[in-house]
């Protein structure tokens, strides 16, 4: 199962909005086949694993990180393939919450007399597909709020200098995350101040769809995210009160403009998440700024936080911090993180946690 998990990870960034799945065929104590779901719309992991075997898979055990499917989708049901190939035993990492599958895959193979065990490295298998597990049920993207700060909690100096607080290794890790997730979202202030590219600059990487939250359409028309759209698509989200001429201009530049109702004078982030989900965007990396971060937490759209903490002290009463906005008045209203973990990336500390709802 660990090998199947490692195989599944190779699909990171390419399978969205479908899951990452790996499978291994074992016979007489030897691995005789292995495969993973490589790209969206391409064969499922089980199909690739069975097809890679150079000998008959009859009587073998198949280890798969996610319950085999039971539906006729872009490909025929994998459960039928396993039955037809006379696989003797199937070891499943975790249940598939997809309503089209949801236990029916396991039931189908069990009813055909195949031995089935479920729940091997279950937590790891669920974590691997945390995006899929949310999106398939809610049809709203899994949102990761990422921020990089000094040990004293600053994301820039008093003069606004922020490049770079975190180290090279952390920045590389963020580029991998940009590749793995479908969208990247920032507030318009970040675009005005930094003119970022918001692309994934790692080896073999795919660019996320760029989403700029810009209630009044203040985005400068010369911004890189508007002028360089050949490598990555850009969406601008505004409110109904935004100037319709400006909407027209942006559309003429090839930008997709999403208009939401107004929520406290700003873009309604919950409505925006629903619209992005309906467009097939299963995950969003929220990269600030501080005002948007607070709104996102307040609106309850954040699923996970990832904070890089650099071994630097910046200081300054007016130096920016990661989450600003109005803030909460009482500690009992503070946003609570769960399942916290901490690790090191180069010289930086990386802390992750979940905002369970
Ligand atoms: C995958 N790859 O290896 C497995 C999947 O869109 P379809 O027809 O390819 O079906 C996608 C569903 O199949 C997906 O939501 C999940 O429930 C199930 N299993 N999907 O893309 C795989 N095993
Ligand atoms: Zn399948």
Automatic annotation (TrEMBL):
Gene3D superfamilies: Cytidine Deaminase, domain 2, Dihydrofolate Reductase, subunit A. Keywords: Hydrolase, Metal-binding, Multifunctional enzyme, NADP, Oxidoreductase, Riboflavin biosynthesis, Zinc. GO terms for molecular function: 5-amino-6-(5-phosphoribosylamino)uracil reductase activity; diaminohydroxyphosphoribosylaminopyrimidine deaminase activity. InterPro entries: APOBEC/CMP_deaminase_Zn-bd, CMP_dCMP_dom, Cytidine_deaminase-like, DHFR-like_dom_sf, Eubact_RibD, Rib_reduct_arc, RibD_C, RibDG_C. Pathway: Cofactor biosynthesis; riboflavin biosynthesis; 5-amino-6-(D-ribitylamino)uracil from GTP: step 2/4; Cofactor biosynthesis; riboflavin biosynthesis; 5-amino-6-(D-ribitylamino)uracil from GTP: step 3/4. It catalyses: 2,5-diamino-6-hydroxy-4-(5-phosphoribosylamino)-pyrimidine + H2O + H(+) = 5-amino-6-(5-phospho-D-ribosylamino)uracil + NH4(+); 2,5-diamino-6-(1-D-ribitylamino)pyrimidin-4(3H)-one 5'-phosphate + NAD(+) = 2,5-diamino-6-(1-D-ribosylamino)pyrimidin-4(3H)-one 5'-phosphate + NADH + H(+); 5-amino-6-(5-phospho-D-ribitylamino)uracil + NADP(+) = 5-amino-6-(5-phospho-D-ribosylamino)uracil + NADPH + H(+); 2,5-diamino-6-(1-D-ribitylamino)pyrimidin-4(3H)-one 5'-phosphate + NADP(+) = 2,5-diamino-6-(1-D-ribosylamino)pyrimidin-4(3H)-one 5'-phosphate + NADPH + H(+). Converts 2,5-diamino-6-(ribosylamino)-4(3h)-pyrimidinone 5'-phosphate into 5-amino-6-(ribosylamino)-2,4(1h,3h)-pyrimidinedione 5'-phosphate. This is Riboflavin biosynthesis protein RibD. It comes from Carnobacterium antarcticum.
């Amino acid at each position: 199962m660990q090998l199947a998990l490692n195989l599944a990870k190779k699909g990171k960034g390419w399978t969205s909005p479908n899951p990452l799945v790996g499978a291994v065929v074992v016979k007489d104590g030897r691995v005789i086949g292995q495969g993973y779901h490589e790209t969206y719309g391409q064969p499922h992991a089980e199909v690739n694993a069975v097809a890679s075997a150079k000998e008959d898979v009859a009587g073998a055990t198949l280890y798969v990180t996610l319950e085999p499917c039971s539906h006729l989708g872009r490909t025929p049901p994998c459960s039928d393939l396993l039955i037809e190939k006379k696989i003797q035993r199937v070891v499943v990492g975790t249940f598939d919450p997809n309503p089209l599958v949801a236990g029916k895959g396991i039931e189908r193979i069990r009813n055909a007399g195949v031995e089935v065990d479920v729940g091997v490295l279950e937590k790891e298998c669920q974590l691997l597909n945390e995006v899929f597990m949310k999106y398939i049920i809610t049809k709203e993207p899994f949102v990761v709020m990422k921020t990089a700060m000094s040990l004293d909690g600053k994301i820039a100096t008093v003069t606004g200098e922020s490049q770079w607080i975190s180290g090279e290794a952390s920045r590389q890790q963020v580029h991998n995350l940009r590749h793995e997730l479908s969208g990247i979202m920032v507030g318009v202030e970040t675009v005005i101040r930094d003119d970022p590219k918001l692309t994934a600059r790692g080896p073999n990487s795919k660019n996320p769809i760029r989403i700029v939250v810009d209630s009044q359409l203040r985005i400068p028309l010369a911004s890189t995210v508007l002028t360089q759209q050949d490598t990555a698509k850009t969406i601008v989200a505004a409110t109904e009160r935004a100037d319709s001429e400006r909407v027209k201009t942006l559309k003429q530049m090839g930008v997709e403009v999403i208009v939401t109702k107004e929520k406290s004078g700003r873009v309604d982030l919950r409505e925006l998440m629903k619209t992005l989900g309906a467009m097939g965007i299963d995950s969003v990396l929220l990269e600030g700024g501080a005002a948007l971060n607070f709104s996102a937490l307040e609106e309850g759209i954040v699923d996970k936080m990832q904070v890089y903490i650099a071994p630097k002290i910046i200081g300054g009463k007016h130096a920016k911090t990661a989450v600003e906005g109005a803030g909460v008045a009482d500690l009992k209203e503070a946003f609570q993180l769960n399942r916290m973990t901490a690790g090191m990336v180069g010289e930086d500390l990386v802390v992750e946690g979940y905002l369970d709802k």
